[in-house]
């Protein structure tokens, strides 16, 4: 009998769902975290990255050897660089120059080429430049912000996994919002199973800088976003997100990034108001890609 070994692409998804033990305190609620840092390239973005390329291939929109272009703040770029390496594409990534050194290094390790825009231009400027390069014939923009294959990855993957792992008992789903692909796809699936499931989105407070999530100006709001799929939006401060992020590492052994700390902070707020609930939050990535920022250097209280 010939053994069938998986490829690296087969290892995307089916991530663990683990229970918080110390942070929740004395509660009747169950607080669960979906560890998306366990994906091969280290984040939840592995799912839509592989989905966008694979589905574009199936439609005949792209073929191996083509150049792909994407604006990214980090995790999507790393995931797309991995997916492009798997499938044989040239990957051109455009990102703000204040993205962490670890993220830039990971993208180039996979063979991607980087174009940096200024921090002032930000993601809006990166998106505008990606569109311009496509108009100039430099490659094909996948456009995670308007590409239905982004939320589809979560509708067919992340959502069903959460439903199965909680045996249909999930009552609240909490996710940071960047491109909004995760929350759109998971919301669609969970609401189809049980319309009473509450979908909670997280955005930064005015002036807060939380990597990976945005408070989008109306003209740049992702086209995949549908407001009716989110029951509640919580504004999160940078301080609260970073504080809970560090507590996750030191009190739970869960090493993650700032947006994930924000999601758990929101989860803890909600839990204080609920009884007998099953809350699930997305841990978007691992904390090692933020170490150079010094965000983990604050001494334990």
From TrEMBL:
Which Gene3D superfamilies does the entry mention? 3.40.50.1100
- Known pathway: Amino-acid biosynthesis; L-cysteine biosynthesis; L-cysteine from L-serine: step 2/2
| Keywords in alphabetical order | Amino-acid biosynthesis, Cysteine biosynthesis, Pyridoxal phosphate, Transferase
Tree of life domain: Bacteria
Q: Which cofactor does it need?
A: pyridoxal 5'-phosphate
Write down the chemical reaction(s) this protein catalyses.
Answer: O-acetyl-L-serine + hydrogen sulfide = L-cysteine + acetate
What's the protein name?
Answer: Cysteine synthase
């Amino acid at each position: 009998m010939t053994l069938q070994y998986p490829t690296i692409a087969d290892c995307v998804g089916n991530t663990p769902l683990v229970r918080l033990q110390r942070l929740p305190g004395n509660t009747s609620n169950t607080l669960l975290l979906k560890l998306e840092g366990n994906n091969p390239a280290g984040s939840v973005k592995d799912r839509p990255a592989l989905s966008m390329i694979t589905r574009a291939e199936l439609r005949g929109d792209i073929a191996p050897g083509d150049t792909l272009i994407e604006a990214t703040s980090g995790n999507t770029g790393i995931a797309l660089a991995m997916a492009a390496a798997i499938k044989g594409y040239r990957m051109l990534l455009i990102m703000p120059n204040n993205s962490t050194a670890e993220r830039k290094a990971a993208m180039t390790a996979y063979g991607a080429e980087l174009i940096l825009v200024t921090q002032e231009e930000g993601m809006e400027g990166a998106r505008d430049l990606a569109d311009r390069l496509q108009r100039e014939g430099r490659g094909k923009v996948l456009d995670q912000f308007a590409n239905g294959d982004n939320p589809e990855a979560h509708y067919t993957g992340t959502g069903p996994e959460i439903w199965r792992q909680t045996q249909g008992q999930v009552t609240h789903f909490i996710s940071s919002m960047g491109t909004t692909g995760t929350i759109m796809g998971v919301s669609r699936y969970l609401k189809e199973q049980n319309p009473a499931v509450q979908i909670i989105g997280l955005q930064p407070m005015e002036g807060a800088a939380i990597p990976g999530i945005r408070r989008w100006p109306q003209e740049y709001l992702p086209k995949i976003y549908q407001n009716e799929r989110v029951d509640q939006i919580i504004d999160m401060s940078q301080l609260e997100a970073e504080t809970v992020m560090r507590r996750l590492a030191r009190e739970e052994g869960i090493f993650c990034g700032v947006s994930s700390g924000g999601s758990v902070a929101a989860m803890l707020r909600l839990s204080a108001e609920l009884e007998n609930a099953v809350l699930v939050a997305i841990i978007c990535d691992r904390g090692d890609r933020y170490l150079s920022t010094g965000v983990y250097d604050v001494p334990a209280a």
